[in-house]
Design brief:
Length: 498
């Protein structure tokens, strides 16, 4: 089968590399991109799932990190979200020991509701404690050990990631063509895409066209006119100003999301610089005001001029129409609050490979792909909305709006279950597991009214004592782990990429 990928960047080259590597006997891969068309290139933080993707492509971790100037990421710190002065980490790992008949948070909730003075929730998560200490070590492969109760992702230079993947994809047989798409030809009978025509009049036919053209959505949006579902009433941030700076502060093994008067600011430390940006709602603050706020907040000397991005939260009604599949921004956009952009690319690629047509595209495969991708977007949407809605802040018009806005029924149901009995809705599909929801619920002050009654079997004194033993064990183990910067310099420093 002839696969034609339209657009490069992270989405395009992830797609090309994956198909060239995993289905070399089944398909040919040709990627069309133009050097004259820029890429978004600010998505620098990832989720742990990228590690599995890299392994499937045969990528060596240390080499990849050196080439992309990456650091490790143990989670995301949220500052000033529930109220000004708050700080908590959404960890890539569990709370407690991650095992047992009753989930840890039920015991924690019981003690909170009984008036116990508890340490920070961060201290009873190995990932959080490791992150706060600025240390890193690979997880223990034995999940029964405290040091085996966490995972990790990467923070890397997005402008270096796509070229790195391009080298891998081309080595495995993918072909790149320089050019701009000027026309899309469709079959008069089926409506499928028959070919694309470039600015030099070259006509390229294909069997399956993958739209990785970013926000322009040249194939799915413009040519096939697939409708876009607008979610800005729930996620009103629609712009970002980005500006990297020299790293003058700690190379933290986590990404920071710091709430601002009209949105939030990211801080992503890499080996050679720190990524900064202000994601904001233009109806609550002007572009000039947002840029000034970012420039005042960055922690080092700027190394590039501020860059303005426009976007709208939402997704295409369908991501696979006819013989065209949209991957990445052409499929939809959710702000980078939880670093889900690259995950959504990866999930689309993985699902498409699992459903890949041998000869002819089946309607059932299209329907299943769209079902899975829709669920991924919808459930991430709810998780992002939770961060905004679960606040007591009323210090600006923006926070007043998100605190009081109507929310989707699907999120309202999740909140009701949590508030009543500390229950976290579990699904077969969806990126964020129980610990992720617990981190935001408790981190932003939503303490359940009830808990699993089995958590009442031990006395409060016994529970408090066990909690202190756990906290001390985590602190002791973390203290013996290497400094994050020292680990990077030994394992995957930039010089090793030469």
């Amino acid at each position: 089968m002839r696969i034609v990928v339209v657009g490069g960047g992270t989405a395009g080259w992830m797609t090309a590399a994956a198909f060239a590597r995993l289905l070399p006997e089944t398909c040919s891969v040709r990627l069309i991109e133009s050097e004259a068309i820029g890429v978004v290139g600010v998505g620098e933080a990832t989720l742990p799932h990228i590690r599995a993707f890299n392994v499937r492509l045969g990528i060596n971790e240390a080499e990849f990190m050196a080439r992309t100037r990456a650091t490790f990421k143990l989670g995301i710190e949220f500052r000033d979200w529930g109220k000004i002065g708050d700080s908590y980490i959404h960890p890539f790992g569990t709370f407690g020991r991650g095992s047992g008949a009753i989930d840890f948070h039920h015991y924690w909730t019981r003690l909170l509701r009984k008036g116990a003075e508890l340490p920070s929730l961060d201290t009873v998560s190995y990932a959080c404690a490791l992150a706060r200490a600025g240390r890193f070590a690979h997880p223990d492969p034995d999940g029964r050990q405290l040091a085996g109760t966490f995972g990790y992702a990467y923070q890397f230079d997005a402008l270096l990631f796509a070229p790195y993947l391009r080298g891998i994809a081309e080595e495995m047989g993918a072909r790149r063509t320089e050019g701009k798409v000027t026309r899309v030809e469709r079959d008069g009978e089926s409506g499928d895409i028959a070919a694309i025509v470039l600015d030099d009049d070259e006509r390229i036919e294909g069997d399956l066209f993958i739209d990785c053209s970013g926000f322009r959505a040249l194939l799915l949006g413009r040519a096939l006119e697939e409708p876009f579902e607008d979610w800005s009433r729930w996620l009103p941030t629609d712009r970002a100003v980005a500006m990297p700076c020299r790293t003058r502060t700690a190379m933290t093994p986590y990404t920071s999301a710091i709430a601002m008067p009209a949105g939030w600011r990211w801080r992503i430390p890499l080996q050679h610089r720190t990524g900064n940006g202000y994601v904001y709602a233009s109806s609550f603050v002007s572009d000039d005001q947002a840029q000034a706020a970012l420039e005042a907040a960055v922690e080092g000397e700027a190394i590039a001029s501020p860059r303005l991005l426009h976007f709208k939260a939402g997704r295409r009604r369908r991501s696979w129409v006819g013989n065209c599949v949209a991957i990445g921004l052409a499929s939809g956009f959710l702000e980078p609050l939880e670093s889900t952009s690259i995950y959504l690319v990866q999930q689309a690629i993985t699902t498409l490979i699992e459903l890949f047509p041998e000869r002819h595209i089946a309607e059932s495969d299209r329907d299943e792909f769209n079902r899975i991708i829709d669920l991924e977007y919808d459930r991430i949407r709810d998780f992002l909305i939770l961060h905004y809605h679960a606040t007591t802040r009323s210090d600006s018009a923006f926070w007043d709006y998100v605190r009081t806005m109507p929310i989707p029924d699907s999120l309202a149901e999740k909140l009701a279950l949590w508030r009543e009995r500390a229950r976290v809705v579990k699904y077969r599909e969806g990126v964020f597991l129980e610990a992720s929801w617990i981190a935001v619920y408790l981190g932003q002050g939503i303490v359940p009214n009830g808990w699993d009654p089995r958590a009442d079997t031990a006395s409060a004194e016994t529970l408090a004592h066990s909690l202190e033993i756990l906290r001390a064990a985590i602190a002791s183990d973390v203290a013996g782990r290497p400094d994050h910067r020292a680990f990077i310099e030994r394992y995957c420093a930039i010089a090793q990429a030469a």
